[in-house]
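Sample intake — Holliday junction branch migration complex subunit RuvA
Collected from: Sulfitobacter sediminilitoris
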Amino acid sequence: MIGKITGRIDYRATDHVLIDVRGVGYLVYCSERTLAALPGVGEVTALFTDLVVREDLMQLFGFQTLVEKEWHRLLTSVQGVGAKASLAILGTLGPDGVSRAIALGDWNAVKAAKGVGPKIAQRVVLDLKDKAPSVMAMSGTLAEAQGEVEAEVLEPAVAKPRAPVPAATASAQAEALSALGNLGYSPGDAAGAVAQAAGEMEGASTPDLIRAALKLLAPKG
């Protein structure tokens, strides 16, 4: 299994890149969002990868973060969702957007992805609703540990360091989910409330997210 590759981009296409790893070229398919974030031809990059092997086909799919890779794995486990549809969903919403849409049951957001119809979008939300909390928690843990994928330096003159993305928001969501779970709320309800609160309060701290989520979870009337 090829789990991650680091190398120089030889060329870019509309749905894939060719990455040269010490003389061996790997064709890696990515979402539009991931492709747009990659450096230019001739520069070094690193991607987490998922290898799909079938009788007549072998394809490598690339992701900037392990969270994006995990969502791809979960999305493709849904009946009717292939790799192409999964990349379309991730390209349209991004990993955080997928977490939020599924936690909130917002299948219309999923349907906005190219080639994804209403029935498939509803199935994605229903099948994966209980998985959203664990992936959101995973997002906070990984962001604290490593930030975005950093390209290994093959040649110092070529590789360009990038500043890691702040992990405060993802970490706060993960901690708020854990706190609500300890208070007895179900994973699905907790994830939906935290996702909605995070969407309304960009950059909110853990206590603020917990307070906002509790208000959303409070009985109405």
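Post-analysis note: Residues 83-104 form the longest helix (22 residues).
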